[in-house]
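Workshop exercise sheet. Pairs work together: one partner reads the sequence aloud, the other fills in the structure field after running the prediction. Swap roles for the next sheet.
Pair: D.N. / O.F.
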Amino acid sequence: MPDKKIKAAFFDLGETLLDFGKLSTTRLFREGARLSYNFLKGLGQPVGCFETYCWRNLIALHIRCWISNITKRDFDALVLLRGIGTKKGIRLDRQQWRHFAWLWYEPLSRLGRVEPKLKETLTALKKLGIKLGIVSNTFVHSSSLEKHLEQLDILDFFPTRLYSYEFKFRKPDVRIFKVAADRIGEKLENIVFVGDRIDKDIKPAAKAGMQAVLKEAYTNAGKKLPKGVWKINQLSELPALIQKINAETSH
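Structure field:
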């Protein structure tokens, strides 16, 4: 009988580790556009008028998102925005481009919330010997996401981090779960995946061979829990759940 003891846990980002809730994307985009525009203008870069700058980037992002929905493959927003800026004569060094990308994300980061005792929960998991990682569908550059996680003082809990724009596939493609298992050094059956989306997190993780835990969120409200899947209301319930699963598998 195969050993199904949980030795590692992967988490989704949005509405799992970070709670954003329902968002006004247009407002957030304009806030990010204004911050990045002011940054460039302060450096004397050729940005032109704000509305043209804002719409040029918005249309480009919309087109790339549309293409991503067809190809099922994410893109790197930093590469896209840098390409648009470079064509308009904007010249920045590597660190400035990363800060530029952060300014687009910064309004969203301000809305992100974590559970009050998340650090204690992650510490408890580490004490159980559980390796921790992140698998997220995103076009936001890793430098921005990791700056946000660092601000929340939880980045170091997750040495293994996979962002879909770095691959030719994304969730629910089972290949990303298999790569995650290879990266963290554990078999699929010894990993639990925690996410909020039944379609993109839970079903494909289970299909790949992982054990799946659904976190309560507005994204799964009223939806039927798939067979063989656990559900938690808060991440703080996870250490006890893993202990329970491991105790059952040891008999």
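Discussion prompt: The mean pLDDT is 96. What would you look at next?
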